[in-house]
Design brief:
The structure holds three protein chains of three kinds. By secondary structure, chain A is mostly helical. Chain A has helices at residues 2-11, 16-37, 47-57, 68-86, 103-110, 113-124, 128-159, 164-173, 175-180, 182-195, 207-210, 220-246, 258-285, 292-319. Chain A has 14 helices and no strands. In chain A, helix 2 (16-37) crosses helix 12 and helix 10 crosses helix 13. Helices cover 12% and strands 18% of the residues of chain B. In chain B, 22% of the residues are buried. Chain C has one domain: Cytochrome-c3 Hydrogenase, chain B (Orthogonal Bundle), CATH 1.10.645. Chain C has helices spanning 44-48, 53-60, 68-83, 89-117, 121-142, 162-188, 190-196, 204-209, 214-218, 226-229, 250-274, 324-336, 344-350, 355-358, 376-389; strands spanning 3-8, 20-26, 29-36, 151-152, 155-156, 291-299, 302-310, 316-322. In chain C, strands 1-2-3 form a three-stranded antiparallel beta sheet, with helices on one face. In chain C, strand 6 (291-299) and strand 7 form a beta hairpin. In chain C, helix 4 (89-117) packs antiparallel against helix 5 (121-142). Chain C is globular, with a radius of gyration of 22 Å. Classes of the chains: A mainly alpha, B alpha+beta, C alpha+beta. Chains in contact: A-B, A-C, B-C. The A-B interface holds A 33, 35-42, 200, 282-283, 285-287 and B 4-8, 11-12, 14-15, 17, 19-21, 23.
């Protein structure tokens, strides 16, 4: 009975099926709000799902000059890593499906894999645009990963734990921690935007420059998996920020007992995650794409120093005995 | 001040506003007076001079035999560029451009105005 | 790092029309550019020789979809010059009106395209929404949204009513507000600045040597404007400024075009105020006597040049068109050298290229393999066997 419940947890809710639906809804929200800001109508609710199903049915081409194994493996790697990362997020209850001391680091590493998979997919596709895009992915990797890591570590330092649920719990107990790590939150959002390769950082797949970068040769099922991995990464990344900076499933002050707490936690998590996604959408709606060199200098001149300031602040506060 | 996302405060409100795009088959915009759409031909006014066919830049207007051994124009809308030169060349105003513009059809030769 | 040859085009999302830029890259930096043109050669000049002047009015219009009216005005001016006609002042004013409306719509369109090239799709959506206003006005005045068919030899085909006049002025008020918004955004949005400032440098002396035209050269500080230097239509009767900047970069080209929108609005308001009463057209004979004429206009993209040789029949003997993009392309090669790959689309877009208008010549020679000409029927057989060999034909 217990193992059956575990399978349900893993596959249906709050596991893979939920993540699948939530990612597609995230994509819908992204496209719809972006369209509305641009005064367009935007897609209907089921459009992302329809796109996914349509792509699954499409002809799937592997170019002759591509490395067949790596070309196929890259989207699967990406999707698996994101889905695995999701298991550690405390979605419903205060603890994720799986949780241990240090799961924050695991999630951060797992969220890096889709980027690497993009690089490999582009590199092994054998297309000149794919290779160029893959190189851009690789060269930008560090410019957003370092500030992202450092920014996310500062709440962990404040809470004195590397465990996601503990950090979230600490934040709900100490609302001041949210304000203290606000700078880290802003850096986290900017770095996440870069990680997700969205405007203004969509340099690797800049449509008007290198067509679609690493994804240029992908079609059919493999492309569908890559797209799903990207959407899931959007949801998981936003969820991670919501957990680490905004207290995840914890209501900000009030807490109820029993099943109600369960529902409340879930609603809180969704609200906070979609709030982060909303910020990400606003961020992409009124900017132009910047260049590789500008992105790198933005990261090293601003994001990393500010992230270091944030973590120093956290260390000092923690050593002084923490917040109230 | 020069800042990224400068437009944002002025456009974020559009999320709640109605989009400008029209959902076409359900809502329609009215074309202005004087739009050149499908032409209308009045055979009784025609004096069979053939000026329309001579001036047609795209070969949409051609002369065809009618009863009485005379020729009258036929307009193939697949070729027509809707410039309205035929209506202008006609000395008897036998051709008139209407506002009808939804002229999609399945097969070649289905949209012929006689 | 080894040098990479990257083809931009003939099919590429940055180019709206097929043209090939072979780019040699060293890392992300452009070392050399090789432009190959001729992919959209349509043989319009040759086709014109087999059509009457009346038919050619509508063919000339289709050289370019955006600046179509500048071409028709050129053509009409050529024919009128050979015929010795003077068009009525009202017709001349109305021609100027449509020319300026066309410039407005072209500049709004370009602003959106430039935004799209640097990933600013929101700007693209807004400017194209505003462009609808101009297009509705043009549709109202001429009966069509593009390829207006408004001109005829000896004048214009339609009159402008009082209500239309009011609608034009209302439209101008709205567009002025929008253009002010874009003016603020274009020079204050950090991400646009970082993409446009100091990119695609064209020094004035280089630009002059390579005979660049229009906003491209005006952004390098050279005040060249056919409307001012050789006024045609009614440009002599209105006052306006030739906009120049001396920043020589893509940002300068953005600024020049945005400020030109204001000049357009100024000109249109003056035209509406001064519009004289009178005839719309003088009767033109169908046959044009022997003679030749040249005409140039300031199309939205720069100087548009037409030449006509008439031989006394109702068809031209020879017609030659030189569109502004052709004049600007050599400058593009200069602008591209030494820039980043990421800047290639915006630099190419900054001259507002119209490849379809430009291709007047098709070279059948290729330096690598000798060209081979096949007829339409041979091509059909070839295609059918190609598909049959793959088992794709029933």
């Amino acid at each position: 009975m217990n193992s059956l419940l575990a399978v349900v947890y893993l596959l249906v809710f709050p596991g893979f099926l939920f993540l699948f639906v939530a990612s597609l809804f995230g994509q819908y929200l992204d496209r719809k709000l972006y369209a509305r800001i641009q005064r367009r109508v935007g897609p209907p609710l089921l459009q992302p799902f329809a796109d996914f199903v349509k792509l699954l049915a499409k002809e799937d081409v592997v170019p002759d000059y591509a490395d067949r194994v790596m070309f196929t493996a890259a989207p699967i790697f990406a999707l698996t890593a994101v889905f695995a990362a999701f298991l550690y997020l405390p979605v419903v209850a205060s603890v994720g499906l799986h949780s241990f001391q240090g799961d924050l680091i695991v999630v951060l590493y797992l969220l890096m894999i889709p980027t690497l998979a993009m690089f490999l997919g582009g590199w092994y596709s054998g297309n000149v645009f794919g290779v160029r895009g893959g190189m851009r992915v690789a060269s930008l990797l560090f410019s957003y990963e370092i500030p992202f890591f450092v920014a996310l570590l500062s709440p962990a330092v404040l809470a004195g734990s590397w465990r996601l649920s503990t950090i979230a719990g600490y934040e709900s107990g100490h609302p001041l921690a949210i304000i203290v790590s606000l700078l880290g939150f802003v850096i986290g959002i900017i770095a996440l935007q870069g990680k997700l390769e969205r405007l203004p950082f969509d340099i690797p797949e800049a449509e008007t420059e290198i067509v679609a970068g690493p994804l240029v040769e992908y079609s059919g099922r493999r492309y569908a998996l890559f797209r799903l991995a990207r959407d899931a990464e959007l949801f998981v990344g936003a969820g991670l920020l919501a957990v680490v900076f905004l207290g995840g499933p914890y209501p900000i002050l009030v807490s109820q007992p029993g099943v109600l707490a369960w529902v409340n936690g879930f609603v809180m998590f969704l609200l906070k995650t979609f709030f982060v996604i909303f910020l990400l959408i606003l961020m992409k709606s009124a900017v132009a794409r910047i260049r590789t060199d500008q992105m790198v200098s933005l990261a090293y001149k601003w994001l990393i120093p500010l992230a270091l300031v944030q973590i120093t602040l956290a260390v000092v506060l923690h050593s002084l005995g923490g917040l109230l | 001040m020069k800042a990224p996302g400068k437009m944002l405060p002025r456009i974020v409100g559009f999320i709640l506003r109605r989009p400008v795009t029209v959902r076409y088959p359900k809502e329609r915009l009215t074309p202005p007076e004087g739009l050149r759409g499908k032409m209308k031909f009045y055979p009784e006014r025609c004096i069979n001079c053939g000026l329309c066919a001579r001036d047609c830049p795209s070969g949409a207007c051609t002369m065809h035999d009618v009863e009485g051994g005379k020729k009258q124009p036929q307009f193939d809308l697949d070729f027509c560029t809707f410039c309205g030169q035929c209506a202008e060349s006609c000395p008897k105003q036998a051709i008139e451009m209407t506002k009808e513009f939804e002229l999609a059809h399945y097969n070649k030769g289905e949209a012929i105005v006689k | 790092m080894p040098r990479v040859r990257l083809p931009i085009g003939p099919q590429h999302p940055a180019l709206k029309e097929p043209e090939n830029f072979m780019i040699t890259l060293d890392g992300e930096q452009v070392v050399d550019v090789d432009i190959r043109i001729g992919y959209t050669h349509r043989g319009i000049e040759k086709l014109m020789e087999s059509r009457t002047y009346i038919q050619n009015l509508y063919l000339v219009e289709r050289i370019c979809g955006i600046c179509s009216y500048a071409h028709v005005v050129n053509f009409s001016q050529n024919v009128e010059e050979v015929l010795g006609l003077t068009i009525p002042p009202r017709a001349s004013y109305l021609r100027t009106l449509v020319l300026e409306l066309e410039r407005l719509h072209s500049h709004f369109l370009w602003l959106g395209v430039a935004g799209h090239e640097i990933g600013f799709d929101t700007l693209f959506m807004y400017t194209w929404e505003d462009r609808e206003v101009v297009q509705d006005l043009l549709e109202d005045i001429s009966g069509n949204r593009v390829n207006y068919a408004y001109n005829t030899i000896g004048g214009v085909r339609r009159d402008l009513g009082e209500e239309q006049k009011k609608r034009v002025l209302d439209g101008m008020d709205y567009l002025e507000k929008r253009a002010t918004f874009y003016k603020e955004v274009a020079v204050n949005e950090k991400t646009i600045l970082s993409r446009a400032e100091g990119v695609g440098i064209l020094k004035p002396e280089v630009g002059k040597r390579l005979a660049a035209v229009g906003p491209t050269i005006r952004a390098s500080g050279v005040a060249v404007d056919i409307r001012k230097e050789d006024p045609y239509a009614s440009y002599g009767d209105v006052s306006f400024d030739v906009i120049t900047t001396d920043s020589c970069d893509v940002l300068g080209r953005v600024v020049v075009r945005v400020l030109e929108i204001f000049e357009c609005i100024k000109i249109i308001r003056q035209l509406m105020e001064k519009l004289p009463a009178g005839d719309l057209v003088v009767k033109a004979p169908r046959k044009v006597p022997e003679g030749e004429a040249m005409s140039h206009t300031e199309a939205p993209r720069g100087e548009d040049f037409h030449y006509l040789h008439a031989n006394g029949t109702d068809k031209p003997d020879r017609y030659k068109v030189r569109t502004p993009t052709m004049a600007n392309l050599p400058a593009v090669v200069e602008m591209l050298k030494g820039t980043f790959l990421a800047d290639v689309p915006i630099i190419v877009a900054a001259i507002d290229p119209c490849m379809g208008c430009m291709d007047r010549v098709l070279l059948l020679k290729d330096e690598e393999k000798p060209g081979e000409r096949i007829s339409w029927d041979q091509l059909r057989v070839y295609a059918n066997t190609w598909y049959a060999n793959r088992g794709w034909l029933g």
